[in-house]
């Protein structure tokens, strides 16, 4: 099976994204390329299909190549281990051994392990060693110089990996496809494949000897030729009919190139045969895509399909996906906007985007534990990959407010098309921003290259220090030239005009006389129903002043505190307990507020939303 695609240096003029040697790894049986329109998905597929471009395809490594790589690695590891006698230990030595073992023991990920090894060796630094004696630093530096020379030799071996494009069998199924002849002469339609002529004219002017471009218009002549051939050729059509019976139609079918007609005919079950164009477009699409794949099933092919979901109901998209997976000798490359192909856990997903005029290719490496968190939050991969801009907020109510505020600045922007908002659930941001205890944006970037984050400060008073971890996150985003807004006020709700907020709470909770904490740092998540019957609670809280005086006694006694003073303290504390606090329904209140509408009055809020809108527009250019 295919493990990687190696792009020539010339690709750097139009494409970016490969880490080392122009190699795109993480290739699986089905590889899905997703991104917004005009990002370059189909162009990338056509480029690696074309034999005029210098592309190599890397398949399973043979024994000789593995042995050569391991011999080179043993020399490198020997150098790294040589400084142990000077008290210098490489911190990632176990990691290197694991990757080396994978070259033999994990064939599916052998190429990824090779590239990861090269990354570690190519970036070897003195500070990655633990030294018991700092005076031995020069020995580590000398060793690194020798490792760099050996690493170049290791890289030369990797550079030679792959089979040239022109020696690999390929099938290309363009978006311009169908079963009904289009070319017409007088009153008759001709079985001329004008879709093929158009596709070759636009994209493949040179012949592709090992590449089949199949549009569907040649199926009439192809099936006729097979049916008029020898027994094995006639049997090929029977087997394809059986395949369609079992996996598509669930009924016996026959494909008939009727001699007095210009199109293929089909007979389903006991029905009379009829021209295939009377089938629904969806069934025609399935036949167009599956036929060239099936007749080439015995020999491994790389199959490139532009937007396989065209004309297909989601149920039939799933049917097509399952059918493709049956051809285990083939590798598939799909450009798509379909959630069916994006959400499949067996896919390898590549995000295609425009970056500085180039088509940028990024493999989305969503770890299993992060996928489970996304699912818990109600998200699927297609919700995140098919947008130009991803805005992270703390909760559902924040999402409601942000959509309203973005619209207030520019009502042409549409959520789900121009941008998407994802809520990460308060402190669960750690799941997305932490990796082995360190803050990084690896996961955020794997979802989308254009992103921003909004965090509530949760401060309860002016002058209170910000949470240090949140400040680190702000610094991290700024270092990556991404927008991160850590609110000055307590939370988003504190930026809503107080009257608008109070009225919404009264309406949603059907209360007339309430008390909500005012101010920039008041807790607006709860309210007091002033008309509710007062009830006193048995637990009371002493004031800080009284408690500090008790502490000075060091024995917990009330020595020095008058009985009258203590009585007043208890009565005041009991009075405070009669307030009946209720939690507001944040989502319903937010919905009511945006339904009623409000004006942005806070300069900080205005500036933040303007920045977000500007970034969204830039991402959508």
Q: So how many helices?
A: 22
Percent of residues in helices comes to 40-55%
How is the main sheet built?
8 strands, mixed
- Write down the domain tally: 4
Structure description:
This protein folds into 4 domains: 63-160, no CATH class; 170-297, no CATH class; 366-535 and 578-621, no CATH class; 546-576, no CATH class. By secondary structure, the protein is of the alpha/beta class. The model has no long low-confidence stretch (mean pLDDT 86). 42% of the residues lie in helices and 17% in strands. The chain contains 22 helices and 28 strands. Helix 4 (110-122) packs antiparallel against helix 5. An 8-stranded mixed sheet has the order 2-19-18-4-17-16-9-12, sandwiched between helices. The chain has a 4-stranded antiparallel sheet with strand order 3-1-5-8, with no helix packed on it. Strands 21-20-24-25 form a 4-stranded parallel sheet, sandwiched between helices.
Topology:
Layout: E1 2-7, E2 15-16, E3 23-24, E4 30-34, H1 41-49, E5 55-59, H2 63-81, E6 88-90, H3 93-105, H4 110-122, E7 129-131, H5 137-159, E8 163-164, E9 170-173, E10 184-185, E11 188-189, H6 194-203, E12 211-213, H7 219-227, H8 231-249, E13 253-256, E14 265-268, E15 274-275, H9 281-295, E16 302-306, H10 314-325, E17 331-335, H11 339-343, E18 348-355, E19 358-363, H12 368-376, H13 381-385, E20 390-393, H14 396-409, E21 420-423, H15 429-433, E22 434-435, E23 438-439, H16 442-447, E24 451-455, H17 468-479, E25 483-486, H18 498-509, E26 514-515, E27 526-529, H19 544-552, H20 563-577, E28 581-583, H21 586-596, H22 603-619
Parallel strand pairs: 2-19, 4-17, 4-18, 9-12, 9-16, 16-17, 20-21, 20-24, 24-25
Antiparallel strand pairs: 1-3, 1-5, 5-8, 6-7, 10-11, 13-14, 14-15, 18-19, 22-23, 26-27, 27-28
Helix pairs in contact: 2-3, 2-5, 3-4, 4-5, 7-8, 8-9, 9-10, 14-21, 14-22, 18-21
């Amino acid at each position: 099976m295919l493990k990687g695609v190696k792009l020539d240096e010339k690709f750097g003029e139009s494409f970016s994204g490969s880490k080392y040697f122009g190699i795109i790894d993480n290739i699986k049986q089905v590889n899905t390329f997703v991104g917004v329109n005009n990002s370059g998905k189909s162009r990338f597929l056509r480029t690696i299909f074309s034999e005029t471009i210098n592309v190599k395809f890397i398949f399973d490594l043979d024994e000789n190549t593995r042995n050569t790589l391991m011999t080179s690695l043993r020399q490198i590891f020997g150098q790294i281990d040589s400084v142990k006698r000077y008290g210098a230990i490489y911190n990632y030595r176990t990691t290197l051994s694991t990757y080396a073992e994978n070259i033999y023991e994990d064939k599916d990920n052998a190429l990824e392990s090779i590239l990861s090894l090269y990354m570690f060796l190519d970036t070897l630094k003195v500070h990655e060693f633990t030294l018991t004696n700092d005076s031995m630093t020069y020995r580590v530096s000398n060793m690194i110089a020798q490792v760099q020379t050996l690493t170049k030799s290791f890289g030369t071996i990797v550079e030679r990996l792959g089979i040239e494009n022109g020696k690999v069998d390929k099938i290309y199924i363009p978006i311009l496809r169908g079963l009904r002849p289009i070319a017409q002469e007088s009153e008759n339609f001709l079985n001329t494949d004008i879709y093929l002529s158009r596709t070759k004219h636009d994209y493949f002017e040179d012949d592709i000897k090992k590449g089949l471009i199949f549009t569907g218009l040649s199926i009439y002549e192809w099936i006729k030729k097979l049916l008029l051939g020898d027994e094995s050729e006639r049997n090929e059509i029977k087997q394809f009919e059986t395949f369609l019976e079992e996996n598509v139609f669930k009924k016996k079918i026959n494909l008939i190139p009727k001699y007095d007609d210009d199109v293929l005919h089909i007979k389903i079950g006991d029905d009379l045969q009829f021209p295939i164009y009377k089938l629904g477009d969806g069934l025609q699409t399935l036949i167009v895509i599956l036929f060239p794949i099936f007749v080439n099933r015995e020999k491994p092919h790389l199959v490139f399909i532009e937007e396989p979901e065209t004309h297909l109901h989601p149920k039939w998209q799933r049917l097509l996906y399952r059918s493709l997976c049956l051809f285990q000798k083939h590798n598939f490359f799909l450009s798509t906007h379909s959630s069916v192909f994006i959400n499949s856990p067996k896919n390898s997903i590549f995000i295609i985007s425009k970056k500085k005029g180039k088509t940028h290719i990024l493999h989305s490496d969503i770890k299993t534990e992060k996928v489970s968190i996304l699912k818990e939050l109600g998200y699927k991969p297609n919700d995140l990959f098919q947008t130009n801009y991803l805005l992270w907020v703390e909760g559902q109510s924040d999402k409601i407010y942000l959509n309203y505020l973005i619209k207030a600045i520019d009502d042409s922007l549409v959520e789900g098309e121009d941008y998407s908002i994802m809520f990460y659930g308060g402190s669960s941001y750690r799941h997305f921003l932490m990796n082995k205890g360190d803050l990084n944006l690896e996961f955020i970037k794997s979802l989308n290259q254009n992103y921003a984050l909004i965090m509530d400060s949760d401060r309860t008073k002016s002058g209170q220090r910000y949470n240090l971890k949140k400040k680190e996150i702000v610094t991290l985003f700024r270092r990556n030239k991404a927008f991160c807004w850590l609110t000055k006020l307590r939370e988003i709700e504190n930026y809503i005009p107080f009257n608008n907020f109070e009225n919404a709470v009264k309406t949603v909770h059907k209360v007339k006389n309430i008390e909500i904490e005012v101010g920039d740092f008041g807790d607006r998540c709860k309210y007091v129903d002033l008309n509710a019957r007062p009830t006193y609670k048995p637990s009371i809280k002493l004031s800080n002043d009284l408690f500090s005086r008790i502490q000075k006694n060091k024995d917990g006694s009330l020595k020095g505190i008058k009985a009258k003073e203590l009585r007043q303290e208890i009565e005041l504390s009991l009075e405070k307990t009669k307030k009946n606090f209720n939690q507001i329904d944040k989502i319903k209140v937010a919905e009511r507020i945006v339904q009623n509408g409000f004006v942005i009055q806070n300069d900080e809020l205005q500036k933040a939303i303007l920045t977000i809108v500007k970034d969204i527009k830039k991402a959508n250019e």
